[in-house]
Amino acid sequence: MTEYFKGVPEIKYEGRKSKNPFSFKYYNPEEVIGDKTMKDHLKFTMSYWHTIAANGADMFGAGTYEKAWDNETDPMVIAKAKMEAAFEFMDKLGIEYFAFHDRDIAPEGKDLKETNAILDEVVAYCKELMQSHNKKLLWGTANAFNNPRYVHGASTSCNADVFAYAAAQVKKAIEVTKELGGENYVFWGGREGYETLLNTDLKLEQDNFARFLRMAVDYAEKIGFKGQFLIEPKPQEPTKHQYDYDVATVLAFLRGYGLEKHFKMNIEANHATLAGHTFQHEVAMARINGALGSLDINQGDPNLGWDTDQFPTNIYDAALLMYEVLKNGGIGKGGLNFDAKVRRASFKSEDLFLGYIAGMDTLAQGLRIAHRMLQEGEFEDNIAERYKSYTEGIGKDIVDGKADFESLESYALEHSHVKNESGRQELLEAKLNQYIFNE
């Protein structure tokens, strides 16, 4: 088989003092953290779209990335070359999982029938490579946003023919995900939103979105797909008002339509930024609601108001992210998918490896820090002390549902001089620095 990333060796752990750029400094897959190896904690996943399918194009210029198949013209030859390159890439990085949209791995044909036939051919080849390379599919999904037919959305389109086409495409994508043993299936809203209410039936669009998701649940049950269904929140881009704005919005939507038991969240760091939240906030919101499903790992640029999808290198964010994951008891069926791309000027094929190494090392060190934070329990002890008033007396009555406005008024009349304690935020942030700097 062709070697697509010539000159790039198998990436090994060499420790923090290594000067070799093609080595892990902090990610040691066999190192045991708590009760699991680092590899099992992190479940790193290759994103097919950014890693293999992307070419570095932006709205101001053509693609710049150097790809081994650039001179090929036959779409199927290109599709299979990309597939072979993907598995070589995962082998060299020691990554076990990958994720894809249907259109990442196979081109569209002249109609839906031909498109499905092309997809089947590529999926059969993918299945062979998965077996020979011992790889797993974290999740699949459908690209129901690129084609011009989705100009007004997919399940929320004003055109019923588009709704039907999107349903057929998602049906096929769920079947493909099941065929490849996918552990999850993701619904990314794409263009599920609106630009102006002057031409939008808001209620019909949201009702149709719910109908679409209900159909997907019913079909998955019908064919015996046991994977986890995930929704990926995103606030803006490409539409001005996305229906899946953030975790709280999606939870409210699911509960409003009685769908909450069927879906968890696939949370992306950069989407949290666009929603005005931290990644930690979004993950914590999902965690406390029993809805943390999987994670798309990247970071945004705080000076830029769009989805830059950079590889994560911020150790503060990594530590606080892994702190929430460990408090959740792990990521379950989900994983840590690198929904990240190298910068347009980083166009050499080896730059992809360097981006992944940086991200994997950052998350690995974040895991170590978060584990020590939880082991020592300083932050948990502080929170317990801060909310101690709800474990006794009137606070316990409130929590236990024994209090009402009348009893609380009686209590307040006798305890009108309220004494608060300091939140000590600066001390806690300094302690977080200690965990990070002393690791």
What is the topological layout?
Blueprint: E1 12-13, E2 23-24, E3 32-33, E4 36-37, H1 38-42, E5 44-47, H2 48-53, H3 75-93, E6 97-101, H4 102-105, H5 112-133, E7 136-141, H6 160-179, E8 184-188, E9 193-194, H7 202-223, E10 228-232, E11 241-242, H8 247-256, E12 263-268, H9 269-274, H10 279-288, E13 292-296, H11 315-327, E14 336-338, H12 349-376, H13 378-386, H14 393-399, H15 405-414, H16 425-437
Helix pairs in contact: 3-5, 5-6, 6-7, 10-11, 11-12
Report on the architecture of this protein.
The protein is α/β, with parallel strands linked by helices and 439 residues long. The protein is built from 16 helices and 14 strands. The strands form four sheets. The chain has an eight-stranded parallel barrel with strand order 5-6-7-8-10-12-13-14, surrounded by four helices. A two-stranded parallel ribbon has the order 1-2. The chain has a two-stranded antiparallel sheet with strand order 3-4. Helix 6 links the parallel strand 7 (136-141) and strand 8 (184-188). Helix 6 packs parallel to helix 7, helix 10 packs parallel to helix 11 and helix 11 (315-327) packs across helix 12 (349-376). The radius of gyration is 24 Å and the shape is globular.
